[in-house]
Design goal:
single chain; alpha/beta; Rossmann fold; three-stranded antiparallel β-sheet; 14 helices
């Protein structure tokens, strides 16, 4: 029987993981943060008062089992006219949201259209925004501008929360976590993709109560404005701060060699540097009883570094 796999994060970060996992399990639940307020998602959110569709769209497409033309259609972005910058898939979700009057129902119908493996679950069905508290005492609201403001102010993120109030978790998300065999956290932006799920009321409690193995897929690179100079242990400490100590059972760390040319491009463009497993990380994980799995988990395509869902699935999913 297929293992029940839950993946928690944001759409872009976990979509590559989902593409790999669907080849090893048909019982997949992608739990997605609902704080995106940038780009086309932000426009539809403001205009129609709906939940942000962009991240769930990425997950739906990643789990799709339909013609390539349909995938291209859902990812198509208009580049001229009044729809410039808007994504067709987002508009399609918005239309179904209006037809059915329910974001959850809209995603279910799109899942049928795309013949997806598994399901995509919004972590909450309430309208909320992400708030960051910085080390210099300032606060900033809005997922899309938090990293930019943090970098501009030359400070660090101390914690994130939700506004105007802590939302209730989608019951489907809680049930999926409680019934899972494995829960994967990440990869993705630490403070704007992964942690926003953990501060939704009920999610951390479900993660505490579940018997599932909880696996953290560590990022390969730091992120400008969010995790400058962060180590593996810094990432884990931030996750624990927003949930509970010892939330992670297993941590996947990449040891794939990345060419200097690509690393230089990341540094020049995004001030992003490679995250390397340090002796202090190993000791930290040992003290936390976190199992470390160090291996080649990356794929590099067109000079972009991405986690390979195929490589990760081979290491974490029981195929017996």
């Amino acid at each position: 029987m297929d293992e029940k796999i839950v993946v928690i994060g944001g759409g872009t970060g976990i979509s590559s993981i989902l593409r790999g996992i669907k080849n090893y399990s048909k019982n997949i639940s992608a739990i997605v943060a609902m704080t995106d307020d940038g780009g086309g998602s932000g426009i539809l959110r403001d205009d129609l008062g709906m939940l942000p569709p962009g991240d769930v769209r990425d997950c739906l497409v990643a789990l799709a089992n339909t013609e390539p033309a349909m995938e291209k259609l859902f990812q198509y972005r208009f580049d001229t006219g009044s729809l410039e910058g808007q994504n067709f898939g987002n508009i399609f979700i918005a239309a179904l949201n209006n037809i059915y009057g329910n974001f959850d129902a809209a995603l279910r119908e799109i899942g049928n259209v795309l013949k997806i493996t598994g399901r995509v679950i919004p972590v909450t069905l309430e309208n909320v925004h992400l708030v960051a508290k910085f080390a210099n005492g300032d606060k900033c609201i809005g997922e899309s501008i938090i990293p930019k403001m943090c970098y501009k102010l030359d400070t660090e993120i101390l914690e994130v929360s939700l506004f105007p109030s802590i939302p209730r978790a989608n019951q489907k998300a809680i049930d999926a976590i409680l019934n899972a065999d494995k829960v994967l956290l990440g990869p993705g932006s630490l403070y704007t993709s992964i942690i926003p799920n953990l501060v939704v009321d009920g999610i951390s409690t479900a993660l505490y109560d579940t018997k599932a193995e909880k696996v953290y897929i560590a990022n390969a690179m730091t992120q400008k404005g969010e995790t400058n100079n962060y180590t593996i242990r810094d990432h884990i400490k931030a996750i624990e701060k927003h949930s509970f100590k010892n939330i992670i059972d297993t941590c996947l760390v990449n040891d794939h060699e990345i060419s200097k040319d690509i690393l230089d491009k990341y540094l020049d463009k995004d001030k992003s540097t490679r995250i390397i497993l340090e002796k202090e990380d190993i000791e930290f994980c040992k003290n936390r009883n976190i199992k470390l799995i160090v291996d080649d988990f990356l794929e590099v395509k067109d000079n972009f570094i991405r986690h390979s869902g195929e490589k990760i699935s081979k290491r974490v999913i029981d195929r017996a």
